Amino acid sequence: MSISINAAFDSGNIRVVGIEGDIATLEIVTDRHSDFYQWFHFRVAGAHGRALTYRIVNAGGSAYPPGWPGYKVRMSTDRETWRLAPTRYADGALEFGSDGSSELVWFAYFAPYTMNRHDALIARMAREPGVTHRELGQTLDGRAIDCLTLGDGPKPVWLYARQHPGETMAEYWAEGALERLTDTANPVMAALREKATFHIVPNMNPDGSFRGHLRTNAAGVNLNREWHAPTLEKSPEVLCVRNAMDATGVAFAMDVHGDESIPANFIAGFEGIPNWTDAQGEAFYDFQRRLTAHTPDFQMEQGYGKSAPGKANLTMSTNQLANRFGAVAMTLEMPFKDHDANADAEFGWSPERCKRLAGSCLEVLADMIDGI
């Protein structure tokens, strides 16, 4: 029986170059109107009883080639549990395999978070007591930008994820944050909701998510370079969210992402903004120190460099919000690889761990909210 490889579904991405014997030669498709590519997600049918090898031959030309060494592909037979597959990167090609134990097998860059799952999350959370749903606007493809609001406190907190659609770990984090905040039996979260009002956008880029993009929306635009001057023509997603932020103000903000290369969780800040204050910066550094002490799944040794004074890129959301509102704003980065200091040989950095980290972030925020 011949094998069939298919990516014509929600968040799918792969091109079949050829299948010869038990070896499938594949390519990742670039984001529409863009040169970015690295996200892949595809299904293999007819795999039972055959040890198959898959070679993504254009991996070396992807957006972040340093992300491949040490990385392992995610593999699933039920689309719920995603395990690490033995993976090799050499000569610009990413190579991995399946052992023939299942008729159907799925592979992805990270555990997918489909638009179907997103819609189910929004429907579930909108029914929770005290939660209000708003459609802030629509994407270029006409999809909704969903926002869930809860809490009664005076401090406006914005949590938003997945500006870069291939960074699916970000929406698992948002799901974990929503589940923790709506847990009415948790006294810490109850106290936090009394002090803050949360506005949560679990997916900033639904078009890119559905299309199987790594980094851009339907127009090929990187949303996290649009926060200085978003437009309806190029970046309506950012425009509607930033307008909503202008209406509420922002005291604390977290922009949730994934990083291809660094095998750790870390936070990037807003050093270099023109309106920097030492008190604002100290609250940001204090959050990192507390989170490091709170969970072994966070660290401060690895991360990005800091901008020089006055040199921050205000097209990026964290810098824009910190400068615009005086907010304690930050970008959380989670790995496509694993959190090496606290590694998991079977699952790597996983959806479940993303959700737990969200809970840790909220618990730290609860300890700090009075001073923000």
UniProtKB/TrEMBL annotation:
<dbReference type="GO" id="GO:0008270">
    <property type="term" value="F:zinc ion binding"/>
</dbReference>
<dbReference type="InterPro" id="IPR040626">
    <property type="entry name" value="Pepdidase_M14_N"/>
</dbReference>
<dbReference type="GO" id="GO:0004181">
    <property type="term" value="F:metallocarboxypeptidase activity"/>
</dbReference>
<dbReference type="Pfam" id="PF18027">
    <property type="entry name" value="Pepdidase_M14_N"/>
</dbReference>
<dbReference type="Pfam" id="PF00246">
    <property type="entry name" value="Peptidase_M14"/>
</dbReference>
<feature type="active site" description="Proton donor/acceptor">
    <location>
        <position position="333"/>
    </location>
</feature>
<comment type="similarity">
    <text>Belongs to the peptidase M14 family.</text>
</comment>
<dbReference type="InterPro" id="IPR050821">
    <property type="entry name" value="Cytosolic_carboxypeptidase"/>
</dbReference>
<feature type="domain" description="Peptidase M14">
    <location>
        <begin position="111"/>
        <end position="372"/>
    </location>
</feature>
<protein>
    <recommendedName>
        <fullName>Peptidase M14 domain-containing protein</fullName>
    </recommendedName>
</protein>
<dbReference type="InterPro" id="IPR000834">
    <property type="entry name" value="Peptidase_M14"/>
</dbReference>
<dbReference type="GO" id="GO:0006508">
    <property type="term" value="P:proteolysis"/>
</dbReference>
